[in-house]
Amino acid sequence: MPHRTVEERLDALGIVLPQSPAPLGIYLPAMQVNNEVQTSGMLPMVDGVLAYTGPVGTIHDVTAARAAARLCALNAMAAIAQVLGGVDGLNRITHVLQVVGHVLCLADFEEQPEVINGASELLAEVLGEAGRHTRMALGASSLPRNATVELALRVQVRPPSQP
Amino acid sequence: MPHRTVEERLDALGIVLPQSPAPLGIYLPAMQVNNEVQTSGMLPMVDGVLAYTGPVGTIHDVTAARAAARLCALNAMAAIAQVLGGVDGLNRITHVLQVVGHVLCLADFEEQPEVINGASELLAEVLGEAGRHTRMALGASSLPRNATVELALRVQVRPPSQP
Amino acid sequence: MPHRTVEERLDALGIVLPQSPAPLGIYLPAMQVNNEVQTSGMLPMVDGVLAYTGPVGTIHDVTAARAAARLCALNAMAAIAQVLGGVDGLNRITHVLQVVGHVLCLADFEEQPEVINGASELLAEVLGEAGRHTRMALGASSLPRNATVELALRVQVRPPSQP
Lengths: 163, 163, 163
Fold this sequence. Notes:
Three copies of one chain form a homotrimer. By secondary structure, the first copy, chain A, is an alpha+beta fold. Chain A has one domain: CATH 3.30.1330.40. Chain A has helices at residues 6-13, 62-83, 112-127; strands spanning 30-33, 36-39, 45-46, 49-50, 93-104, 133-140, 149-157. The mean pLDDT of chain A is 95.
């Protein structure tokens, strides 16, 4: 039987949604306007500490960087959940309009798509069909706090269901 | 007599719209939500092969990089056409809200606007007034598959006309 | 007594909104579609001349780069005002959905958030509550015309008030 709700999918994955990460500056983690939620750039934070710093290709291999991208996407989910009133608010997501992912790397690195797949996989696992998205995968020579990945989401949501 | 439809403009330009390029990862080439279509980051692909790799300023001059940007925009048109049901769907575009173009280059390169003009020119030629847009032209130290340009579009469309 | 309108806030800050900067290529400084206004990438221009070029960390310190980011945000305000029919049009802004800021820097620079705070502060000062926003702060190894910062805004506006 397929898992139906985001909560059921998270349970099956053994994922506990983290708290929405604290901003590093004067901005909001996410914002809803009408049926759209935009997140800020998310870093691979765990409990307020960066879990992945330094470039892929030297400090990290693609597998590690992909885990960093997955963590960014999980933090984006947390920020969206906060705006939508809790984890069950994520069930209101109908589309992920865009994923923008920047990968810290040296100039000869070419596998940004494989790294950002870590975020794409999480979106599919947690949101199912609603997690399908367009994407921009980019290289970066520097990122805030030397983070390995920075990633933002723009999602479309349906109104809260009437009881 | 001015050319009226996108098909007529493409014919006059001698352009055959390519197939929407296959994604390099777990994402969609383009997605429509309501009246908006967002594309993924497009590379200067021809028939599934990158036509331009390596940085402008060393491997390529501005003229070549501008051709790469034009090719990215053409592939974006193809991705949007696929979502809108064919080439004639491009006639439904009313505005190009944003062009985001990243140019692979060394740190001393400053002519990203001249490179991304290659995409802007194509949009004007193919879409006419509807091709006017806002734009972000950026430098990149690395890009997926060492592509010379990566470029995404966000466009506004009108509903299909009732017969 | 709190300042109420954008004009009053600008007066109190001693800021005269500049003219919308001329594009560096074939694009518009800003575009409105429905209730959204998107700007192009803004550079730290004053009267058509770049006030800040070169990377932070070598040419500029964080304080100077923050001033460059503030200037980009001011130019974005000018571009939005032009689209909305004048400075008083800025009172129609209800949300700043997204700030995307790219900071020219070397690979070991990590304080992009502190630099882009210069833009975030200006938005708060000029727009008040409506200036709250999500944000992406990124590093760049190169930018158009060697500008120290490039920054774009996406804002939500309400319809013009009926008299």
